[in-house]
Design goal:
Layout: E1 12-15, E2 18-21, H1 32-36, E3 39-41, E4 44-47, E5 50-51, H2 54-67, H3 76-90, E6 95-103, E7 117-124, H4 132-137, E8 139-143, H5 165-176, E9 181-185, E10 191-194, E11 198-203, E12 206-210, H6 219-230, E13 234-238, E14 250-255, E15 259-266, E16 269-270, H7 275-288, H8 290-298
Parallel strand pairs: 8-9, 8-15, 12-13
Antiparallel strand pairs: 1-2, 1-7, 3-6, 4-5, 4-6, 6-7, 9-10, 11-12, 11-14, 14-15, 15-16
Length: 299
Amino acid sequence: MAGMAFHDRAGVIWMDGEFVNWPDAKVHVLSHALHYGSAVFEGERAYGGEVFKLREHTERLHRSAETLGFEIPWSAADIDNATNELLARQGHDNAYVRPIAWRGSEMMGVSAQHNTIHLAIAVWQWPSYFRPAERLKGIRLDIAKYRRPDPATAPSMAKATGLYMICTLSKHDAEAKGYADALMLDWRGRVAEATGANIFFVKDGVIHTPTPDCFLDGITRRSVMGLAADRGYDLVERIILPDEMAEFEQCFLTGTAAEVTPVSEIGPYQFTVGDITRTLMEDYDALVQPKQKAVAASA
């Protein structure tokens, strides 16, 4: 399954209120979203048949659409119900979930006020974003040449498809050099995030993370910050300059796909997989995994 093309898989996809056979979930080549990036999406994970923080993701999908100037014609409850039914139909306990909303093909040009808004949801089995052995020893990051844009030039608070073009370019460049991913700076030259995950650092027992003023304040990011607070760890959101990375001892990424992933290297900077990183990895696993949640609740 992992090697199969995404357009040619078994099962169904929820699309515009109906379940359609996976190969038949198609859009027209003149869809506005294909030409102008007028689409928003979410990345979600199901553990044991339950999508982690589904409503938070759905509400963010709605907010992203509003930021791009359109309204999704299905309520949050409608989308949640469709997601849960789709997950059951596909028979996946552990899966990745991808809802996407986009402008259709009625108008072709920069203006598209009268285009139909479409919505589709797909789920598929997906293992760890990074190879397990690599993840445990810490992944290596390049430093990207592209930067997260000024919020005055792009809707950076939306999870919009067009904003990820530079992420794809940066990840491709990093992988071509043998790295797993890339660190992106913001337009001011400050540390921002990886291509699809938020970033944290540890120094002298204190966790530091960039202020999310030009990139997503991730749902996983906030969950891990809550776990850190539960542990009594000191955590600071602040401006982080690249040169500061030489002083940090630990580093890790957070995201729906990445979960909690240690980092061993960012360009010339080296990190160890220390106790705080390992503890938060374990705590996050316990938070999302049903069996571990049940054990924790009964303890």
